[in-house]
Design brief:
Number of helices: 9
CATH superfamily of the largest domain: Periplasmic binding protein-like II
Radius of gyration: 20 Å
Largest sheet: 8 strands, mixed
Strand content: 25-35%
Oligomer: single chain
Strand order of the largest sheet: 4-1-5-10-6-9-7-8
Structural class: alpha/beta
Number of domains: 2
CATH topology of the largest domain: D-Maltodextrin-Binding Protein, domain 2
Length: 254
């Protein structure tokens, strides 16, 4: 009898314990998924999704915007860290716990609209003078592993775009999801550049550190699935990406 009462008490307390578990929640600056609005408030598609998940699971921790390299280092080394938005790859898959998918993205090499650069294979891109990449991001990691030695690393994608337009780099490695937002924030139009080569396609997730209690990402995934069922996810996603398809089923094998 006492054992049954204890089991029931633990079951009732479990959601309260999970809600009380303090998380450090980081996001990067990468419009329109996450960005700082003119009012100084965090905004963006993934920010709205995370805030809605927080409401549903009872979490009130602050979302903090940091450079990607800082957030990525923290989520690898410390428990109870959340970082979004992250492309899920074979190399990253065993390193984190995953909530999502919240989007799908293709990563490509972009040149100025009038550029004569033509890229047919990834190896051809190794011959250009410089490619702008986002430091320690999936683009940087993928191209570094592929043997690129001509990468020009910066801490934000707006700088990357401006360096491309000023001729300081020949190509810019960008996500299809953020290229328009970064063009506009850099003071240009997406028509000012052109895609010359796609080198990677991934699903995009909210990542949690490996040592975080697995019950926490489980609850977040449960809330996200409910948002997809009741239409909340679609409403938020389409507000930022009206022409993009919703993400498909989670891919877990690579």
């Amino acid at each position: 009898m006492k054992k049954g009462i204890l089991t029931l008490a633990l079951a009732l307390l479990s959601p309260m314990i999970l809600a009380a578990q303090k998380l450090t929640i980081y996001c990067e600056d990468d419009s329109p998924m996450q960005f700082m609005g003119p009012d100084g408030k965090l905004s963006g598609m993934s920010v709205e999704l995370v805030e809605e998940i927080q409401k549903r699971v009872g979490n009130t921790d602050e979302i903090k915007m940091v450079p990607w390299a800082r957030g990525y280092d923290a989520v690898q080394k410390n428990p109870n860290i959340v970082l979004f938005s992250m492309g899920r790859t074979a190399e990253r898959n065993p390193l984190f716990q995953w909530v999502g998918p919240i989007a799908e993205s293709s990563f490509g090499l972009y040149a100025k609209a009038g550029s004569l650069i033509r890229i047919k294979t990834l190896d051809e891109a190794k011959k250009v003078h410089a490619i702008g990449v986002y430091r320690d991001d999936i683009r940087d990691q993928f191209l570094t592993k592929a043997g690129f030695t001509n990468l020009d690393r910066v801490n934000d994608n707006v700088t990357n775009f401006r360096k491309l337009m000023s001729g300081r780099v020949d190509l810019y490695a960008s996500s299809s999801n953020d290229i328009r937002g970064n063009a506009e924030r850099a003071g240009f139009r997406v028509a000012d550049i052109k895609l010359v080569f796609v080198f990677l396609k991934t699903q995009v997730f909210i990542a949690m550190s490996k040592d975080t209690d697995p019950a926490i990402p489980a609850k977040w995934n449960e809330a996200l699935r409910a948002m997809k069922r009741d239409g909340t996810f679609r409403r938020i996603f389409k507000a930022y990406y009206p022409d993009h398809s919703l993400p498909g089923p989670e891919i877990t094998t690579f």
